[in-house]
Amino acid sequence: MPVSPTPDPSTGGPEETRSARKRAAILDAATTLFLRHGYLGTSMDEIAALAAVSKQTVYKHFADKETLFSEIVTNTVSEASEPNYADVLGLEDSGDVDADLRGLARRQLARVMQPQLLQLRRLVIGEAGRFPELGRIFYAQGPERTIATLADAFTRLAERGALRFEDPHLAAAHFNWLVMSIPLNEAMLCGPDDPATSADLNRYADAGVRAFLAAYGPG
Amino acid sequence: MPVSPTPDPSTGGPEETRSARKRAAILDAATTLFLRHGYLGTSMDEIAALAAVSKQTVYKHFADKETLFSEIVTNTVSEASEPNYADVLGLEDSGDVDADLRGLARRQLARVMQPQLLQLRRLVIGEAGRFPELGRIFYAQGPERTIATLADAFTRLAERGALRFEDPHLAAAHFNWLVMSIPLNEAMLCGPDDPATSADLNRYADAGVRAFLAAYGPG
Amino acid sequence: MPVSPTPDPSTGGPEETRSARKRAAILDAATTLFLRHGYLGTSMDEIAALAAVSKQTVYKHFADKETLFSEIVTNTVSEASEPNYADVLGLEDSGDVDADLRGLARRQLARVMQPQLLQLRRLVIGEAGRFPELGRIFYAQGPERTIATLADAFTRLAERGALRFEDPHLAAAHFNWLVMSIPLNEAMLCGPDDPATSADLNRYADAGVRAFLAAYGPG
Amino acid sequence: MPVSPTPDPSTGGPEETRSARKRAAILDAATTLFLRHGYLGTSMDEIAALAAVSKQTVYKHFADKETLFSEIVTNTVSEASEPNYADVLGLEDSGDVDADLRGLARRQLARVMQPQLLQLRRLVIGEAGRFPELGRIFYAQGPERTIATLADAFTRLAERGALRFEDPHLAAAHFNWLVMSIPLNEAMLCGPDDPATSADLNRYADAGVRAFLAAYGPG
DNA sequence: CATGAATGAGAATTCATTCAT
DNA sequence: TATGAATGAATTCTCATTCAT
Fold this sequence. Notes:
The structure is a homotetramer.
Chain A: H1 14-37, H2 44-51, H3 55-61, H4 65-89, H5 97-112, H6 115-126, H7 132-159, H8 168-190, H9 198-216
Helix pairs in contact in A: 1-2, 1-4, 4-5, 4-7, 5-8, 5-9, 7-8, 8-9
Chain B binds a DNA duplex through helix 1 and helix 3.
């Protein structure tokens, strides 16, 4: 997740680039530390030290600690949620709904269960009191958007008789959580020390899809 | 959740009770503050002040902040998970599985969605890095135990033909999360400011049970 | 050094004895802790805990921490210096000065180098700034008194031609430090972790006596 | 002993020097206070205040109190022991051993009995429990090194017939302590309030040399 | 009389933020 | 512009001592 935009040194002017590089270094360092130790558990000193810049430079780029934290979480959430969203968008009816959904489920679950994304989710949940809007952003760009898009795709599938339901949004939500809930809830609570294997994850995804099709599948 | 044993001043001996009363006051205050502001966001001074007790007294009852926090979370988790567990234990086959499961689902969801329990779950998730064993305790006494017990009950129902599945534990987990995932995940992220109404909760419970029975019900 | 007077429970009245026993327990505990961790490094809480009495009891017996410390050091110094003094007092001319002095030197050195006495000396030296009179007491009851008494004994020996010197007090001091300085100074600085063996000590004592007799002996 | 490198403001570069100046001020202040009140008796607040520096600056230069203390004692011991060592190294046989040794003894004793060095010795002895390696450093750089060097010098003197002994190291140790023990031990215990006059010290030095030569001198 | 609680200060250390250089 | 220093308060935890019970 700590991904600096790596400004192209050949195109950018050297002065503007140096500043941008520092900014990226700060973001990288802060992301790493906030994910590891939380908001209060991370100090501006540590961030500056890990970014190898002076503290003043940090404050020149970010007004204060809250701003820095917000920006990081917002950016990271956007970046992390993008592939999941795109994957759902690209859902096509190949004629084999079962296979299509299983593939989607496996890919989505694998992405959601990336250690850094799990850690981000823990962070946002833990700071829901201090930064309520960050949780809402996470929710909106994550589950909400995914499920809404999935509902559209399901509606198309239902029109072709591949699925049957009354409320597409509800069906999409059930699909989503049938696939993800078991490993995600365990991961949230049991921490980064007991990661599930990807074979486990695939089994959970398959089982979720099977239950979903038993409930919402055709005939 | 901050429930002091409420020593009856008329029956309890006056000497043993004074110390116990102080201890309870400290636990109450600390629970309130930890739930509100998190582990690092709560100071021992604040706890002592809210408990109307000197800081020394706090340290005489609890070796340090970590001990106090652990004890609180452990106690609270135990107390909070008990009714849910008991409810699943008491699940009987009245002949109307649909109604039985809907009742169970509604009661369980209502309990899990209590604001203080949600806040405790956020706290434990947010501190999973600092206190890994607390998350494991929460998981073991909460979802894990409930689902295991539910699996036993489902096995009995399956023997009477009321349910059909291959893996009772998987079916129980799917039941649990079909009922809870939608509101619980939203609540985790969207914080204590947008609480779901209990009518909403009942609807989610009913919808979850309907999907569950469509997948795992008889015939 | 922590030696409680062990009051005889059969003779003493039970009430007076209980108080005396507590007092002795406090002195024992405080002596142990002061010797181990120094004056500032020892807390009244620890003393009360180790003595198994309440803090109030400590304050009932000793006005404050300084008083307790002074009393302990004074008592311990007196007790510890007594045998050394008595040994010098009993110095007789057996006709073999060499053997007499070597025996005295060995016994004295062995006593001075007892670990607890070394620790007491370190303590008194380290607190010379805070408790100047304790150092003076230690000096007066220790080296000063021993040397003065030794000077008397040497005077008698000189009258019989067994020793020769101008200033008996100077000769006594030289005797004392020729015997003790090497191991004592090393012990002071190198701490309680590298104790000298008693064979070493005897060698130092013998070597000191030999040098002393070479300088102050007859013919 | 609190001797800052006294950066010459006219020659030193202004930027490198500021930090170094602060560091020196901290060392000076800490040395003064540690010598005066001991390790536990000195607070970091006092040190910062006396150095006219913020507490942060102290902690940026020295990781913690123990580090600061160790560094100070180590530095001071090294500086203080140097002249004594050099003086012994320069011992030459002028033909008049008596005068040579008396001169050396007087100079050494005068240096060892400097109030600040006495205080340092008390400090190190008093903290032998908490900082055992500091005592060992003091011993190694002080008495041990001096005596070893003296033993070499005595060996040369013995070859010319100016001294006679079996064990040069033992002779050197006896010389050292015959000269120093009386005033040093008194000073250790009787504190900084009763300083010996330098006339006294010279008399002790002379008497020690006289006894030494009576034992180890020629003929 | 002896225990637990209170006190009120002070310990070491860290914090986010802002001046000077 | 970017660095070291300063700030001033807050952190956890401990202290010696004194009330109440």
